[in-house]
Amino acid sequence: MIRVLLVDDQPLIRSGFRALLDLEDDIEVVAEAADGKEGLALAKQHLPDIVLIDIQMPVVDGIEATRRIAADPALDRVHVVILTNYGLDEYVFNALRAGAAGFLVKDILPEDLLHSVRVAARGDALLAPSITRKLIDRYVSQPLHPGADTVLRALTNREREAVVLVAHGLSNDQIADRMVISPLTAKTHINRAMVKLHARDRAHLVVLAYESGLVAPRSS
């Protein structure tokens, strides 16, 4: 069962999402919150698999709430998905840097919402390659981590290759095909790279790959 926490200051949005999610046999909405502060408290209480959280809210906004969730060891299995009215913007990029697993626009189709919740629950990033490139092209002009070279040297050649392919939006199966290895070995390379780079999830790994210079903006 995928446990979901809804955090949005608009009751109508929360009730609409809840009505849709609760219809699914494998998804359960465990709680709702009207701001980030309440959402943090409920996340600690219920330990959901997914937190669907609005970016712009009173008291504590979605970016700060995401940052606090990502920094809390007790919530390391919680995947945060940002909800936005505006689509691709700097708020979304900042949320991804803070630790979000991806983002969804609030007018998303019902079937796409359900698919996205299941994808995030598996630990996969909700970032299409085209979206990733647009984000990076717009908001990353140079590496943001001065010690990135030292960190990247900790990766093996195969781990670096796997990270590059993750940043290009490939799935584990596609990475395995490209590297001529098994999907399990591909997953192992990715997981080891995430540990070495202290990446919370695949979305964070993608951001780190670009910020470190391992993958250049506009690369194919």
TrEMBL record:
Residue ranges of domain Response regulatory in the record: 3-121
SMART domains (alphabetical): HTH_LUXR, REC
Domain HTH luxR-type: 148-213
Record flagged with keyword Transcription: yes
Pfam families: GerE (PF00196), Response_reg (PF00072)
Keyword Glycoprotein attached: no
Protein name: Response regulator transcription factor
